[in-house]
Amino acid sequence: MDPLTQGLLGATAARCAHRRQHSVSRTCALGFLAGMAADLDVLIRSSSDALLFLEYHRQFTHSLVFIPLGGLICGLLLYLPLAKKGHIGLLWSIAYCTLGYATHALLDACTTYGTMLMWPFSKERIAWNTMSIIDPLYTLPLVALLILSCSHGGRRWAAPVALCLMLSYPTLGWVQRERAQQAADSLARSRGHQPESLETKPSFGNILLWKSVYRYNGRFYVDAIRAARWVTVIEGHSIAELDIPRDLPWLQADSRQARDLARFTWFSKGYVALHPHLPHRVIDIRYSLLPHEINALWSIELNPLSPESGVGYLTHREDSSSKGRQLWHMIVDGSPP
User: Fold this and answer.
1) What's the CA gap between 307 and 166, in Å, rounded?
2) pLDDT interval class at 337 (50, 70, 90)
3) What confidence tier does 319 reach under pLDDT thresholds 50, 70, 90?
4) Total structural domains in the chain?
5) How open is the CA angle 46-48-54, to the nearest 5 degrees?
6) Is residue 145, in this structure, part of any structural domain at all?
7) Do 288 and 205 share a structural domain?
8) Cβ-contact 26, 48 below 8 angstroms
9) Are 34 and 71 in contact (CB under 8 A)?
10) Residue from 159, 162, 10, 161 nearest 98 by CA
11) For residue 184, what are the CA distances in angstroms to 136, 208, 213, 238, 268?
């Protein structure tokens, strides 16, 4: 989830536990900063290893067992510059920060990227696929309710209402995901396919239009599902699943590039394919700006001439404004671009 929403939700959680003798604004500030703090793991990077951040983002800082430690660290660091001046004691500073910190990983798990909630006991990237990473229909009401709660003569009811929104919107997303998944499964079966794996995930900024990806007989099939009053399908494209002996015959099994490819495949949950026009580029087909397309948002570039060099990591945002307009039309009226 985007940092602003994470901070707002953290502030809302702290506001719900606010004590009258404490400064409301500083209580919310503690929750806001702690609510964003887990994403500091994006600073774990290496100039010689382009995939390092993929391993550590949403890893230990986002695990359930790390919440008390994360809250403690934030509470200690923010006590002197922020909490003490608002007549907030050290223990309360830690408590407010822990509440704010606790919201982060759970909200991230509602999105599609994957969050290691059970680290270090499991490296599974949990993704409930009920919300987009950015969703204004979720964020804007949080802003309004938090402002109401923190305004002069603050309305204490606004913070609990905001927490109810936190729970109800992902629940609605779960209902929408199930509708989209049923439609995607029916679509596959209408083609005579028995999906070996199938995922549906919300497209950018909404829970109305969904991307469906399923694997069958060595190929991935990508379609868009619009789950409005009536569920409609916008059929997309298919692409062959990555087959290393066939697609990358030069790749040495014990080389660094082979290990990097394995890391990228793990991160992508196996939804990888060779770029249709670039023979050394491997794409993650789960994400695209338009949900019925296979135009990946990120990929890795291998180099057959240097098997012991690290792979390159690439992001793709070409023509995003034009695709944004097309996405809007698909959301509003379900028409294909």
Assistant:
1) 47
2) low
3) confident
4) 3
5) 50
6) no
7) no
8) no
9) yes
10) 10
11) 26, 14, 8, 14, 20
Residues 95 and 51 in one domain: yes
Does one domain contain both 54 and 91?
yes
Q: How many CB atoms lie within 10 A of CB 111?
A: 24
> What pLDDT sits at residue 184?
97
Give the helix, strand, coil percentages of the chain, each rounded to 5: 50, 15, 35
pTM: 0.91
Tell me the β-bridge partners of 281.
301
Nearest partner of 44 among 59, 65, 66, judged by Cα: 59
Query: Which residues make Cβ contacts (< 8 Å) with residue 270, sequence separation at least 6?
Result: 197, 215
The DSSP call for residue 49 is: B
Of 5, 8, 14, the closest CA to residue 97 belongs to 14
| Helices vs. strands in the chain: H and E counts, helices first | 10, 8
Edge-first strand listing for the sheet containing 281-284? 272-274, 281-284, 298-301, 312-315
Do 285 and 298 have their domain in common? yes
* 296 and 184 co-located in one domain: no
Is 156 a member of any domain?
A: no
**Nearest of 313, 245, 317, 249 to residue 282 by alpha carbon:** 313
Flag whether 284 is in a domain: yes
- Quote the domain boundaries for residue 317: 240-321
Name the average pLDDT for the chain.
Answer: 93
Tokens of 123: 């490296």
